[in-house]
Design a protein that fits this description.
Oligomer: single chain
Strand content: 25-35%
Radius of gyration: 22 Å
Shape: globular
């Protein structure tokens, strides 16, 4: 697939690296010459210095022959103009990053589609939704729903009180023969394992589990996890993610939001009704103590500085805060932050990639999640009448060893994958896959 990416920094660069590794023909348009030079040195990607709203620049990127145009510049107005012009110049499909929440309503999405903007993504709004979901389901480190919650992916860190420690999957299946969940991956010391029957769970493993709704409580119990009651939440950083999250959370929780920018605090006071806004530097320990960090149930760090977010969450842990969430934009920091004890990491690059990767696959994908802290993805494929997997039992498939089927949704009912389960046309199949096998898996469903 020929893909043109309009970016102005790390998100565009990350997407270019990700998609070029899957053998797509990538051209990046970026206004920063130093970044363009770095892209050209570090990869086989073609890069052009220039303004993506320029017709001449887009033509030099061969936009008329491109299959996909992705515009992820920080300025949403540039993204909208870029995708509209790109569509007029002949690109087959366009994806546009926006920040304004009113742009993603169904009626406005349709209006943009008529203008030439096929798909709209707001990483900030998706990130704020993830934060809200995690504060409502506090036992898991990470979670993601498929088919409206008929199946869900949970990430659980196995600590010393987990009941599954030192037990193999076969042992657990023997002791609990009617489980409504299935482990699809174990992340251990930087390595991701697709588990077989003889694999054992060890202390500090990160276990990725697919569960039916009725299996969640038992799954959490075996993992040594219990729900944490959340009443008081402190957010540091009142940017787009922080403000969106506070606006949704303030109706059900006591929310304090700290931001170093006085003008931003004034603007937020017009849109937040119940949130207590505090102008101050979240790196000031005395300020955090004065504002009651010890009485907080959850601490969410969303400043632009990943180091500040990580250290602030560690400080919150020291004061006894039960739930910590940090925005960490440097992907290399994610594994370190998780190992240091931060519960959940939010990363906008991975959120953007989760949305976009599905449009580079041939099979129909209804959901995809690029996971934090592990180089892997979970996808929900729709089974077509003539796809290779249709009318076959799971055990009959010679599925790539770096991938595993976690479950199937059929007629709005979730089923945990077992070898004898037949895959039928119309099913939605949830697959956990390492990056090297995503396009191999795609062929099974194409």
């Amino acid at each position: 697939m020929k893909i043109v990416i309009a970016g102005d920094g790390e998100v565009g660069f990350y997407l270019a690296e990700l998609l070029s590794s899957e053998h797509h023909d990538i051209t990046v348009v970026d206004p920063h010459n130093d970044l363009v030079e770095m892209i050209q040195k570090q990869s086989d990607v073609m890069a052009i210095t220039g303004d993506s709203t320029s017709i001449e620049i887009l033509k030099s990127a061969n936009i008329e022959h491109a299959d996909l145009l992705i515009s992820v510049v920080h300025d949403e107005n540039i993204n909208i103009i870029t995708t509209i012009i790109g569509k007029k110049l002949g690109v087959k499909k366009t994806i546009c990053r926006v920040n304004n929440p009113e742009y993603i309503t169904p009626e406005n999405r349709e209006m943009f589609k008529n203008l030439g903007v096929d798909e709209i993504i707001s990483p900030e709004i998706i990130a704020s939704k993830e934060i809200i979901d995690l504060l409502n389901q506090t036992a898991a480190t990470e979670m993601f729903d498929f088919s409206g919650g008929r199946l869900s992916l949970f990430l659980i860190k196995l600590e010393e009180d987990a009941l599954v420690l030192n037990k193999s999957l076969n042992q657990i299946a023997t002791e609990f023969p009617h489980l409504n969940f299935r482990a699809v991956a174990i992340h251990r010391k930087g390595e991701t394992i697709i588990p077989k029957g003889n694999n054992r769970f060890l202390k500090d493993d990160l276990a990725y589990v697919i569960s039916k709704p009725e299996g969640i409580n038992q799954m959490l119990s075996l993992g040594g996890k219990s729900h944490i009651d959340i009443n008081n939440i402190m957010i540091i950083g009142g940017g787009r993610i922080g403000s969106h999250a506070a606006k949704q959370l303030e109706h059900d929780f006591n929310v304090k939001l700290i931001d170093i920018d006085y003008a931003r605090c004034e603007r937020l006071s017009n849109s937040l009704n119940k949130t207590l806004l505090i102008h101050g530097d979240a790196r000031d320990i005395q300020l955090l103590e004065e504002e009651g960090i010890k009485s907080m149930d959850a601490f969410v760090a969303l400043t632009r500085e990943p180091e500040t977010n990580i250290l602030a969450c560690l400080l919150a842990r020291k004061y006894g805060v039960k739930r910590t969430i940090a925005l960490v934009e440097n992907i290399n920091f994610i594994d370190i932050a998780q190992n240091m004890g931060i519960d959940t990491i939010i990363n906008k690059k991975l959120i953007t990639a989760s949305y976009i990767v599905r449009f580079t696959l041939n099979a129909e994908v209804t959901s995809i999640k690029c996971l934090n802290g592990v180089d892997a993805e979970v996808l929900e494929f729709v089974v077509k009448e003539k796809s290779f997997v249709a009318n076959k039992r799971i055990k009959e498939l010679k599925f790539p060893k770096e991938a595993i089927i976690g479950g199937i949704v059929r007629d709005s009912i979730g089923y945990i994958a077992v070898g004898s389960l037949m895959i039928e046309p119309g099913d939605k199949v949830v697959v956990f896959s390492l990056p090297q096998s995503i396009y191999k898996v795609d062929k099974f469903f194409n």
